């Protein structure tokens, strides 16, 4: 009787965990499975444990012993392989476990598909972190079951080089003579590559089959493969890769070699680079030598094939530029990447690093990544602490914030505060303002404060304080963590006065954290400090102390989380706040969910102020209060003040929707102005909502059911938008959009002239490009990628035209510096109406801006390379664009440039259609919308209806 | 090994739902392969449907109509724990359930080695777990898409009850993969066998579009009516026949009147003979919001009808390939549904081409193929542990 699977369990000095591994094999839901334990010359009794297991399960478990330790995984696996009798073979390490159904799933897939090699999902967990559910190893490879006739059908398999999550047909291994190399580490990589290459058919299953218990490598060793601290380890990895290269060369598989090289750059090399900063100089030097030599052996095409940042890192290693390589390897590690290098602009393109005499290689071109235009909140600048000193009673701190290519523009409004943040309590900070001076390429910051006023920790419960800088650029805030410029900076200790008791310490001692940042520890040098600290430590280490401490921490965090959560605020709002009396004559205004002061609410507000009505207005802002009117009260969206204001307001005015969970009370009038007529299907007509269950549809209608008044611009709005949103016909106000009044009346000439000057538009024709957004990953809008080449526009039409690019407000755009002269990003200007007035022509696709711009009776061009895809499959439209569009529908760049070159011709060619379009969709826009809305809502005649 | 003792356990076995039709069909087919099949219903249905009096397999129902609370009591907060009435009702439920489980246990104890319990629904699994299964292998099934389960309370209950099963089965590979990604490691898939072998094929000339299903929100007949209002204007003379009954019937009739299509839409009530109803049509419309592996679509394809369907679940994609044996449109996209209907109504050759492909395509769900898959699974589960030293 032959077993279906032989599982080879290798063990070295792991007596404690071996029974767990073997137990996971014995517990397999597939019956005929045998276990072969190979003890690699252990000295801690692992051999005896193996014998006991074999004796307890005769015929199902066998134990083999190597006479002396082989130092790797290759020899024990080969030994087990030689003794295996199963139809299939699997490998298991003594510290890991198999899933209960691993063999069943793998064998079932092997028998169903006839594959030589079946691979399943491996999940890596941290046993030292209780409750860790682990994360899957290359989950995108294992998203769904798949069968490949050869590795060339999916070369990405080369990423998963583990030998353990796989089930091999034994005949296949024997026939191909496959075994593990015994003289190097990382024998897995070579073995897996050979197996992938030889397999006639490869099957993948999405089931978890293997749990890899991964531990932070200990300084004294730990598991073999994670001991990256030894340079030999890296040398071995390179050696294995060279052997793989030889195997691939022998097969003439140049394309596979390219894939493998890309994997080396994206994965293997990055592992080492990200740990390199912590190594000593000698290690770094020799690492660089080894790496640079191997870079020369990579396929030339790997620079395009690999991911951009790892490719830059590898390329710079090849040039011997360790700093640049490290900056690239570390870029993008956190949620917000940190820019650790200079950027260089050359010939209108942006390059990584200083270049310093080197030619500008295309691999270093990062223009398309948009780093040069990203605000600090998207790409953090590096900042340093260069000075920390005591002058008499004062403490002086100073440092720099690097600003390559003037990402923080010279005219930006910059504010900076220095913060000491309690590491254990999010949000608890001691802060001091800093002054900022601008230099070329960096900002200098400086803060001076009285420590006795500022540095007041509690003591004992808050021993560590991290140093942060909170940078605000034009109201957009970013938190930065400075790095110490050198060791001498961290020599000054700051006096501190704990609030609980002076026994906790009397000074904050600066230290360098593992991530190379600055933190302070509360300490005291005197005997009483030391004794008190020891006593507290002892108490906290007892079992009761630990438990109590943990409970207190958990309760504290729980209370903090609950008090601040939107759920709590909404519950308090709906049950309590709405019972407070309404304040007559108050209104809450909001535009684009608080993003800016713009749109219909803005124009209604201005009219309200002009008319002098005694309405107290509260404006809600989401990010920063910058740009909002000074004569209104401002509340942050989502804050307690915001909820209180909404609960007590007599009027709500907004253009998107106040938070859905908030009840609107009967005494409040909700004016929903909306933000544009509809081309795409909206609300209940949107396929997403149409396909949804009853509950979700009801939630939507409950939300829109709060609208008491809804602005419409035409009968088209009544039939499409209002119906899609489920607004009853008696709630519609057919007065047009207040924001379009200037389009009919001409707007304020002084304001327009100022804007024209600020944007530098003089003497050229202005083209506004305003496309709608495309859905991206994770339900968010994708960044705008221009469907034409802005550089070509600048080259061919730049002398006579300027293009203003306005991305949809949910997204952003990055333009290359080469196009700077003729293509401008105007996404930061909140209100679109003045831009429409400035523009001599509009280029758009499916954006509702077309309905507004049509009122101006100027040329409109529809640039729609993806017309069928967008209107057909995605979501559906209310009318046929080709039939009604007041301008040409163009799909090619040549046609677009030709049309833009001759705007007068465009003006004449489509005049009749344009007027028909404006008449149809802007029926009620007569230039008096703001006045009429204010009259109808705030004028007194309409109050009693709700 | 032939002649296993097989128990198929469903919530009910005496009504007309999709799972019940599947259970009787599978019991009949497995009996035909020489197995001894017992079909177990946990409770009697509230709307029993008279079914073939002499089935070739045993049918047992554990309880009368189920009157205790459907689900076990789960107090949401410390405050809710003080609810004495809920506590008493839950006691009642537990007591009744225990009696049923004892009856089930007696049935299972009589099984010979090599037997299998197939649990078709997660509610029924509570009884199986209480009864204990001894040496029998347990196969737990989810007859709906992963997304549909995810959106309901069944998701949590499946996670409680199914990981201990020897195998969990979904209807399609895509759903099995979704469960595997979520961490269910015992999951595999097993398609439904074709519910009947059609006697006749539709001739595809009658100007009739057929729609078959319960008249409830998740079947999306409201969207069918909207699409019909758009599509039928261009094809006067065509009729939409809606077979089925359900809670939304009145609302749907009112909607048809409001859309001004009452004259071309027929509400025909439930169809006792699906094949006959389908044979009179030329196009099959499946406007569902949620599906498992829709039986009605399989039936329509077997009859040679070209289908138009929302791509709402893996089960629909599994059966239909766009432009090959039917037309798939994005879920909820009513204009696209209307456009697809217009295309089929206006193009007889396209109907015939898609219809021919449908008949050929659905052949892979032939009972023999599906039964072979079942047999392989049963054999795999019963491969025994051995002493390999000899």
UniProtKB/TrEMBL annotation, chain B:
Q: Which keywords annotate this record?
A: Glycosyltransferase, Transferase
Q: Where is the Glycosyl transferase family domain?
A: 202-358
Which ranges carry the Glycosyltransferase subfamily 4-like N-terminal domain?
17-193
| Single GO MF descriptor | glycosyltransferase activity
Instruction: Tell me which SUPFAM superfamilies the record gives.
Output: UDP-Glycosyltransferase/glycogen phosphorylase (SSF53756)
Q: Which branch of life, at top level?
A: Bacteria
Q: What is the name attached to this protein's record?
A: Glycosyl transferase group 1
């Amino acid at each position: 009787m032959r077993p279906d699977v032989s599982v080879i369990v290798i063990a070295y000095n792991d007596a404690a965990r071996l029974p767990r591994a073997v137990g996971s094999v014995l517990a397999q839901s597939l019956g005929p499975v045998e276990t072969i334990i190979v003890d690699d010359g252990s000295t801690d009794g692992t051999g005896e444990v193996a014998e006991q297991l074999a004796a307890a399960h005769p015929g199902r478990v066998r134990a083999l012993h190597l006479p002396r330790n082989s130092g790797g995984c290759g020899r024990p696996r080969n030994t087990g392989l030689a003794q295996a009798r199963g139809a299939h073979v699997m490998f298991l390490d003594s510290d890991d476990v198999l899933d209960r159904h691993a063999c069943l799933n793998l064998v079932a897939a092997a028998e169903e598909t006839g594959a030589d090699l079946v691979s399943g999902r491996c999940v890596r967990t941290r046993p030292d972190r209780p409750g860790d559910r682990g994360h899957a190893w290359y989950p995108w490879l294992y998203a769904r079951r798949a069968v490949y006739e050869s590795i060339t059908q999916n070369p990405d398999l080369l990423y998963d080089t583990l030998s353990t999550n796989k089930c091999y047909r034994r005949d296949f291994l024997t026939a191909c003579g496959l075994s593990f190399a015994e003289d190097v580490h990382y024998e897995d990589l070579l073995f897996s590559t050979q197996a992938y290459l030889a397999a006639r058919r490869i099957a993948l299953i999405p089931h978890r089959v293997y749990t890899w218990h991964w531990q932070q490598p200990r300084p004294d060793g730990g598991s073999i493969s994670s001991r990256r601290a030894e340079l030999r380890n890296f040398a071995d990895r390179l050696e294995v890769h060279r052997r793989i290269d030889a195997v691939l060369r022998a097969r003439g598989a140049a394309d596979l070699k390219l894939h493998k090289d890309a994997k080396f750059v994206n994965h293997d090399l990055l592992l080492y680079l990200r740990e390199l900063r912590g190594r000593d100089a000698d290690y770094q030097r020799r690492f660089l030598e080894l790496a640079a030599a191997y870079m020369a052996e990579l396929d030339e095409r790997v620079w395009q094939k690999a991911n951009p940042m790892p490719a830059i890192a590898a390329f710079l290693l090849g040039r011997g530029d360790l700093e640049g390589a490290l900056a690239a390897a570390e870029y993008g590690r956190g949620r917000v990447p940190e820019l650790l290098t200079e950027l260089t602009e050359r010939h209108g393109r942006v390059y990584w690093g200083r270049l310093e005499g080197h030619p500008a290689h295309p691999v270093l071109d990062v223009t398309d990544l948009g780093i040069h235009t990203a605000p600090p909140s998207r790409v953090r600048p590096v900042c340093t602490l260069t000075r920390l000193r005591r002058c008499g009673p004062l403490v002086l701190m100073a440092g720099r914030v690097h600003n390559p290519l003037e990402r923080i523009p010279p005219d930006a409004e910059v504010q900076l505060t220095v913060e000491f943040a309690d590491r254990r309590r999010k949000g608890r900070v001691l802060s001091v303002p800093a002054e900022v001076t601008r230099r070329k390429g960096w900002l200098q910051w400086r803060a001076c404060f009285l420590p006795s006023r500022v540095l007041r920790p509690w003591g004992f419960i808050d021993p560590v304080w991290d140093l942060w800088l909170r940078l605000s650029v034009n109201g957009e805030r970013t938190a930065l963590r400075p790095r110490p410029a050198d060791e001498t900076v961290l020599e000054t200790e700051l006096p501190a006065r704990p609030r609980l008791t002076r026994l906790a310490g009397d000074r904050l001692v600066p230290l360098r954290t593992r991530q190379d940042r600055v933190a302070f520890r509360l300490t005291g040098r005197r005997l009483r400090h030391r004794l008190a600290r020891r006593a507290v430590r002892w108490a906290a280490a007892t079992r009761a102390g630990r438990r109590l401490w943990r409970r207190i921490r958990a309760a504290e965090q729980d209370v903090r989380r609950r008090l601040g959560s939107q759920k709590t605020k909404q519950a308090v709002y709906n049950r309590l706040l709405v019972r407070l009396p309404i304040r007559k004559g108050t209104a809450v205004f909001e535009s684009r969910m608080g993003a800016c002061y713009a749109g219909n609410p803005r124009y209604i507000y201005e009219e309200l102020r002009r008319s002098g009505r005694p309405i107290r207005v509260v404006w809600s802002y989401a990010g920063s209060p910058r740009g909002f009117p000074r004569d209104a009260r401002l509340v942050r969206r989502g804050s307690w003040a915001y909820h209180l204001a909404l609960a007590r307001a007599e009027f709500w005015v907004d253009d998107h929707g106040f938070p859905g969970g908030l009840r609107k009370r009967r005494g409040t009038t909700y004016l929903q102005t909306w933000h544009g007529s509809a081309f795409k299907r909206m609300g209940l007509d949107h396929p997403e909502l149409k396909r949804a269950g009853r509950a979700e549809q009801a939630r939507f209608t409950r939300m829109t059911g709060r609208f008491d008044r809804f602005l419409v611009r035409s009968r088209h709005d009544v039939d499409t938008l209002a119906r899609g949103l489920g607004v009853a016909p008696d709630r519609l106000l057919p007065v047009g959009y207040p924001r379009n009044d200037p389009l009919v009346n001409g707007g304020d000439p002084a304001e327009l002239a100022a804007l024209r000057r600020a944007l530098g538009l003089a003497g050229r024709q202005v083209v506004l490009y305003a496309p709608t957004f495309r859905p991206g990953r994770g339900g968010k809008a994708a960044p705008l990628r221009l469907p034409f080449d802005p550089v070509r526009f600048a080259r061919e039409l730049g002398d006579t035209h300027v293009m203003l690019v306005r991305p949809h407000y949910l997204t952003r755009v990055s333009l290359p510096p080469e196009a700077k002269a003729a293509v401008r990003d105007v996404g930061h200007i909140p209100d679109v109406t003045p831009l429409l007035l400035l523009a001599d022509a509009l280029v758009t696709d499916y954006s509702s801006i077309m309905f507004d711009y049509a009122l101006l009776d100027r040329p409109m061009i529809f640039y729609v390379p993806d017309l069928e895809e967008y209107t057909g499959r995605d979501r559906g439209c209310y009318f046929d664009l080709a039939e009604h569009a007041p301008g040409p529908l163009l799909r090619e760049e040549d046609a677009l440039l030709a049309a833009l070159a001759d705007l007068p011709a465009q003006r004449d060619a489509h005049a009749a259609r344009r007027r028909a379009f404006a008449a149809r969709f802007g029926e009620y826009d007569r230039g008096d919308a703001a006045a009429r809305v204010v009259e109808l809502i705030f004028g007194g005649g309409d109050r009693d209806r709700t | 090994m032939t002649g296993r003792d097989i128990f198929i356990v469903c919530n009910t076995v005496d009504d007309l739902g999709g799972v019940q039709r599947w259970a009787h069909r599978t019991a009949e087919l497995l009996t035909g392969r020489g197995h001894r099949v017992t079909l177990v219903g946990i409770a009697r249905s509230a709307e029993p449907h008279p079914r073939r009096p002499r089935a070739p397999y045993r049918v047992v129902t554990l309880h009368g109509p189920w009157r205790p609370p459907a689900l076990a009591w789960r107090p949401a907060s410390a405050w809710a724990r003080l609810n004495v009435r809920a506590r008493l009702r839950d006691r009642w439920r537990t007591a009744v359930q225990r009696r049923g489980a004892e009856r089930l246990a007696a049935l299972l104890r009589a099984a010979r080695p090599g037997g299998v319990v197939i649990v078709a629904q997660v509610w029924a699994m509570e009884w199986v777990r209480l009864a204990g299964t001894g040496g029998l292998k347990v196969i737990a099934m989810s007859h709906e898409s992963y997304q549909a389960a995810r959106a309901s309370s069944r998701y949590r209950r499946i996670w409680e009850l199914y990981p201990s099963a020897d195998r969990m089965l979904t209807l399609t590979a895509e759903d099995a993969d979704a469960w595997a990604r979520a961490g269910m490691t015992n999951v595999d898939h097993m398609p439904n066998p074709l519910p009947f072998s059609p006697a006749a094929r539709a001739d595809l000339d009658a100007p009739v579009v057929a729609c078959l299903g319960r008249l409830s929100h998740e079947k999306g007949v409201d969207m069918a009516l909207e699409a019909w209002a758009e599509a039928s204007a261009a094809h006067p003379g065509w009729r939409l026949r809606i077979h089925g009954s359900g809670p939304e019937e009145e609302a749907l009739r009112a909607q048809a009147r409001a859309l001004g299509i009452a004259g071309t839409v027929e509400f025909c009530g439930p169809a006792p003979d699906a094949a006959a109803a389908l044979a009179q049509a030329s196009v099959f419309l499946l406007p569902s919001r949620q599906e498992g592996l829709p039986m009605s679509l399989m039936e329509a394809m077997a009859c040679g009808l070209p289908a138009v369907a929302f791509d709402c679940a893996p089960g629909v994609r599994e059966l239909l390939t766009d432009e090959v044996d039917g037309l798939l449109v994005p879920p909820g996209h009513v204009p696209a549904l209307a456009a697809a209907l217009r295309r089929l109504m206006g193009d007889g050759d396209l109907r015939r081409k898609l219809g021919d492909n449908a008949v050929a395509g659905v052949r892979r769900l032939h009972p023999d193929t599906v039964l072979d898959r079942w047999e392989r699974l049963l054999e795999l589960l019963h491969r025994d542990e051995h002493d390999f030293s000899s």
